[in-house]
Specification:
Strand content: 15-25%
Strand order of the largest sheet: 2-1-3-4
Largest sheet: 4 strands, parallel
Low-confidence stretches: 107-123
Mean pLDDT: 76
Order of helices and strands: EHEHEHE
Number of helices: 3
């Protein structure tokens, strides 16, 4: 957990894969966020979440669909927190269904349904 002041923008990222977690932290830090990380719901529950600006949550953690319960927990504790969901699931798979988790719904069915191979955020 990083040290921070009251003026800092705080970001939580929840990712079970170490290399992806490192990349997420690098991207968020480059955008000016002070980062907190967690790899499962137990770690999220232990964090002070009240002043978060954004959360990035992977739906599939350690082979389970634990990300959905983490989004529910975040929405319960901070109702209007922006949550970015990261997943390798196709949008048509039930595991990628975010209905009932709160927050905005997908803007359009015309949005891309899967990432292009080799695409990297932030470049």
């Amino acid at each position: 957990m990083s040290e921070h002041t009251a003026d800092d923008r705080l970001a939580l990222f929840v990712e079970g894969e170490a290399l992806i977690a490192i990349e997420l932290e690098d991207l968020l830090t480059a955008e000016g966020f002070v980062c907190f990380s967690a790899s499962d719901s137990h770690a999220v529950e232990a964090l002070p979440l009240d002043n978060l600006s954004v959360a990035v949550v992977d739906l599939g953690l350690h082979g389970r669909i634990e990300g959905q319960s983490i989004v529910r927990l975040l929405r319960k504790r901070i109702r209007h927190l922006p949550v970015v969901v990261v997943t390798g699931y196709d949008l048509q798979q039930p595991e990628a269904d975010l209905r009932g988790l709160g927050g905005p719904q997908p803007a359009s069915a015309s949005l891309p349904t899967r990432a292009t191979s080799g695409t990297r955020c932030g470049t």
